[in-house]
Structures are given as structure tokens and as C-alpha cells.
Amino acid sequence: MGNLRDFIDSLKRKKVTVIGMGISNTPLIEMCLQSGISVTVRDKRTRNELGENADRFEKDGAALVLGEGYLDALNEDVIFRTPGLMPSNPAIVNAVRNGSVLTSEMEAFFDLCPCKIIGVTGSDGKTTTASIIAELLKNQGKTVHLGGNIGTPLLYDVDKIKPDDIAVVELSSFQLISMWVSPGVAVVTNLSPNHLDIHRDMEEYIEAKRNIYKYQKPGDKVILNFDNEVTRDYAKAAISDTLFFSRSQRVEDGAFLENGTVYTVCAGKSNEILKAGEILLPGVHNIENYLAAFVAVQDIVDINIMQKTAKEFRGVAHRIELVREQGGVKYYNDSIASSPSRTIAGLRSFGQKVILIAGGKDKGISFDELGFEINDKVKKLILTGMSAQLIKDATENAKNYSAGLGITVCDDFTEAVCLASKVASSGDVVLLSPACTSFDKFKNFEQRGDLFKKIVMEQL
Q1: Which candidate, 14, 105, 246, 297, has a CA 20 to 30 Å from the CA of 377?
Q2: Structural domain range at position 453
């Protein structure tokens, strides 16, 4: 473990390229330029698409390689990969074969971080689980650094982190796929098909996630969802201490739900935490998120802090976020739901049929299961975006389809939200839960959710 200054000094003697001008890499580019490092910035977007950032970085001394040929002549000494670019890309493979060192902002952080790291991954729930863990630790009086895939880069503040602090890091499969180090505490919320438009296949996705615990040492902890077949199977290869959480049965070490009550259990001794109905965040998936979080911190956080946090924590923006109640209709923003399984979890959070707004850019995942769930949990379906017809077909082809389910396709997102309001009556729930990424019309799911909130607050 070094320090940030030594790390920066080591880069000054090398040619460096940063691929991708995104949230995690923009501060990295700035740090390199401010430190006098020779840096090339590569991005598949054009100068017009990048706007003033491209001009600013070039003015500060960066060489820019943009557009279609952004990976041409990739031969710098150190390559910082953007999470969305797979290490298997032929240009990356060729550069590494010729001596380039491939790394990332997150891998550098792991190498330099002086404190305990709790890492969280999964197909669904990882942001909420990481946020709950951070909230629990803060309420216990710990200094916490929450970042990673959740949207906050941590590398640039690593010198401010003290050994007694705790870093809580959300990790995506794109970040994990090339990682060679694992956190001391690893949490896997669940695994289901996701990002198959980027990953070669499901097996590559599963193997990428495995890196969160693959490099752990004896005495480290991996916390797995016992109810999920894939994550339960991870235990076979773990050399660290394995703990489980389950909402279907008791576990020997970890946490479980029984008769509506949440328990933690350590060394055979169980502790009653609280009734599941006391958890402020709605839905059974949030019970699972709390089970996972409680296991991650059960040796640090007192039971009374666990209870208080679960009863008071309002959650994270864009995750079944109550935006407004207007005319007896409740509007929920679940823009984070970029996969069918995530939308299914959202639908199951309500004790009534909802008016669902869905659609966007699909990930190559089947909508068949979602189609069945829509027929069971939705009273009106409003679709928009590139995948609208795919979701409509899956819903109409489901064996429980009834023509009584009204399905409308809208070209415009604002039109879809306004239509949902028009067909809603007092007592209804309107839920934005797209089951798809936002990249057909938006920069990210936050922008999509923010527009939904703006429409709900200003136009309805």
C-alpha cells in the first residue's frame, strides 16, 4: 500500500491514457494534468458530443483521440480503462500483449486505500444495500467514505482517508471484471441476467462478479444471498468466512427473516432485530437489502442503531422514491430499474396493481418473466422508448394475459408520464420502473428520473 503522491510520481515517468471522459475518469484526468503527467484522453464520443470538457482538457495539455477511431494506436505505458470497455476488446488485448499496464480508477483506489473496505455487488439492490451499510456505520459514529459505481470516485481523496475509517464501495461487473484484489468484506445481493448487451454471455457476467471475493484472504468475509442459486454456489470456492442472508429460512451465520421478524445470527446465537413491517423502505427486496447490510456490520453496529436506521432511513433517489401524492395518486420514481428483474421487484413492493411506465434501451435480456408479472401486478401499462414493442409482445404473449389490461405506447417520455396521470384516479400508484437502460433518450438513469420528477411536480 502506497500513498497518492507516490502513485502520481510513478505516473510522471510514463505515458498515460485515460479511456472515457465519464464520472469516475474526469477527476483522474484533472489530477494527471494538474500533476504534469503526459496524458492522452480517448473517448468514442465526438468533440461535439463531449462539449466544453474536451476543449478544457485539450487547453490544459491533454492529447485527445475521439470518435470512431478512439482506440487506434493504443500503446501507452499505463491504460486507465472506463468501466464500460471490456478488457477483452481487441485493442486492449493487443496493448497489454505489447507491454501496456491495464488498470482503472477503482483498482488504483483499492491499492492505495488505508482503511477497511466493504464492497457490494449484485444484479439488483447493490446501491441501496451500500447506502444502508454506510448509513448504519455513520449512525454508529464511524467516518464512512461511500463511492464507486454509486457515482462518487474515491481515488482522489484517498490521502484524506484514515486507517480507522471505513470505505463502502459499490462495484459493478464492469469494474470487477479486471480486478485482481477483493475487499475485506464482500457482499453479493443476488445475481440474475443483466448487461448481456455488453458481456459476452451470462457465464462471463457471473465470473466478473466472482472477483469481489476471489482474492480474499482467510479471515475476510463474503456475504451471500442463500435464496439465490448462483450466489449460494459462490460459497464453494470461497476461502474466506462465508455468511448467508435469507428471507426463506434460517441460516447458521448471517441474517434471516422468520415469521415477519428479522434476526441476525453469529456463532449459533440469534438476535431479534425488528419486525420487517417496521422497515421504512417498501418491498421484500428491501428486506433482503437490510438482511445483507446487517450481516456486513453486525460486528460493528449496535442492535439499537440497526433498528433506528431501518425505521428512519428514506433510501436513495431514483429507487422507489415517492415523488408526490397529488389528487390521491402516489407517484414513485424507480428509474434505477434498468433490468426486468429490478422492475419485477418494484412491482412486488406494492400491495395493489399499479399504473406502470416502462421502456428504454434493452440489455438483450428476455422480457418474458416481466410480461407475466405485468399481467399480475399492473392495471395500466404505458410503454415508451426503443424496447416498447418488445415489452408489449412479452406481455401479450404471457399465458396470464387478459385483454382487459390497457397497453399504450407513447413515443415521447413526457407524453407517457402525462398519460399515466390522466388514467389514474384517487388511490392509484403510478410507478416509473423502466426495466431498461436510459441510453435511447437520456444520458443516464438519473437524468431520466429527474425528468420524471420534474414533470410530476410541475405539469401534473
Answers
A1: 246
A2: 321-458
